Amino acid sequence: MIEGQRYVLWGSAGHAKVLDEAIRRRGGRVIALFDNSPEVISSIAHVPLLGATDAFLAWVNARSDAKDLCGLVAIGGSRGRERLNLQSLMALHGLRIQPLIHPQAFVADNAELGAGSQVLASAVVAVDVRIGAACIVNHNASIDHECQIEDGVHVAPGATLCGCVHVEANAMIGAGAVVLPRVHVGTGSIVGAGAVVTRDVIDGVIVVGKPATVLRRLP
User: What is the pLDDT of residues 17-35, one digit of tens each?
Assistant: First the structure.
């Protein structure tokens, strides 16, 4: 990150505060927030919440410096598809979509992070890990060697992925969950908080417990 880099965040709840703190520690600053919810207010002091999609389009099209701004999506949870769509919208209108690594996180030299992915404080991304676009590796989460994390995945606070785990697109690994080595988590599935995943998880389900079993299918 270049010191003084200016950011636009999409989302104005608690996750925006988290990203703002990481950005400031990297020498950057947030200059504008956008959010599709009509009920939210700006969560960052002195940063304006300017509206939803129409407001963003009017704002960015009126600026001559859009190519000099960075964009990130400040939406957590199991909303990976939404993160990807909003990130694509910002990129389409000239904003730069780069990974963000908190200075107190560890990311191995040869790990790969996709556009807009976020590695937050005290998280670990180990050697030979591949992380796609619009992913969140939240506080104190650990992703061990040779894991493959596809686009839109959220690894929640304190979760642990042991070596060679494969998590498919838009899945979520809940807070404090553990996924054992070489296990595969399917597209869009949710691993509940505190679960211990000992075998592969199929697409589109919620699994909970120790060992994790299917609670229900997602709509």
Answer: 999 999 999 999 999 999 9
Q: What would you report as the CA-atom Rg of the chain, rounded to the nearest whole angstrom?
A: 17
d(CA 194, CA 103): 27
Which member of 145, 154, 166, 184 is catalytic? 145
Sign of CA dihedral 57, 60, 64, 67: negative
Instruction: Count the Cβ atoms, other than its own, within 10 Å of residue 21.
Output: 14
Fold type of domain 101-208: UDP N-Acetylglucosamine Acyltransferase; domain 1 (2.160.10)
CATH number given to 6-98:
3.40.50.20
The H or E element that residue 142 is part of is strand 142-143
What are the domain boundaries of the chain?
6-98, 101-208
Q: Is 139 among the catalytic positions?
A: no
How many C-beta neighbours within 10 Å does residue 89 have? 18
**How far is residue 105's CA from residue 141's CA, in Å, rounded to a whole number?**
10
Model confidence pLDDT, tens digit, residues 44-59: 999 999 999 999 999 9
| Cα distance between residue 178 and residue 124, in whole Å | 14
Q: What's the pTM value of the predicted model, to 2 decimals?
A: 0.95
